[in-house]
Amino acid sequence: MILSSTHIPVMLNETIAALAIQPGGRNLDCTIGGGGHAAAILEHSSPGGQLLGIDADPEAVEVARERLNVYGSSVLVVNDNFINLEAIGIKNDFMPVHGILFDLGLSSLQLNGGGRGFSFRYAAPLDMRFSPGQKVTAADIVNTSLETELAYLIRNYGEEGYSHRIAKRIVAERPIKTTLELARTIERAVGSRRGKIHPATKTFQALRIAVNNELENLGSALKQAVSLLGFEGRLVVISYHSLEDRMVKNFFKQESRDCICPLDTLSCVCHHTARLRLINKKVITPSSAEVEGNPRSRSAKLRIAERIITQEEWRETAERLCFLAEAKTGVWRRPALLKGVHGASLVK
User: What is the mean pLDDT of residues 39-58?
Assistant: First the structure.
């Protein structure tokens, strides 16, 4: 097993600042990996801070638990996928929270652990599953998909311009069992070098995304994260390729608007209400010094949004307080209070 010391958290200082961590806060790390970000979050939320960490990879969970053991009952690490984020929060009575972090990059454990099949730098079975409990492997996709299906997957998940050429070569050389076999097949299809990245990079990305349903899971998890956040809680996402970053950017943009109807709609019919406020309209990227010290950080992009209270949530909260006041004092206060509640405008 790779020791946790090999894990270098990306944009650590920027992440801590983005989460606006306060002593005693409760935070969620949805991709705890080697525990680098989690340890810093616990340090900055001390005293009294709590952290719930999640990871689909059981090896990462083991490493994180060992690394964070010194924080005792302040931290809980669970082996699960963030597709179940809301259920995890409810089960562990961990809501609402002050901050939620998604670091969507592969950890050093996965990249350096040669047997997992995530990297073409090591000879390994074509696996690429985050969790051994998942059924479909990269080998299943590579060796059973139709050529058109492979080309579509490589083009859409890898943004690979030579998708049809690569898919055709893969089908011609099947069965392909290892990472190195696949990398060499791709090289024979498009050439050994294209710019700064290896020609197999985009295809490996596409397969990994498909195996783990990464984009679908992220879309669902982002919606759940907003529901778990307390008011003025921060949602921070670090992405590493354009597909993820575009999804996060569009989600934040949509959730920061009151109406999301098409521009040609005469009057609003969506009844959508903004739940987030954008903190950084311009994406945050690593410093040149960080990229030099940790080349894996070079493609990272960090976005921040803050939970705001909607008009409807504000009214529901006020009404609930009115009823509580009645129950406690026996005085009928609701008419006057609710008149003020429903007549007031919410300043965002």
Answer: 96
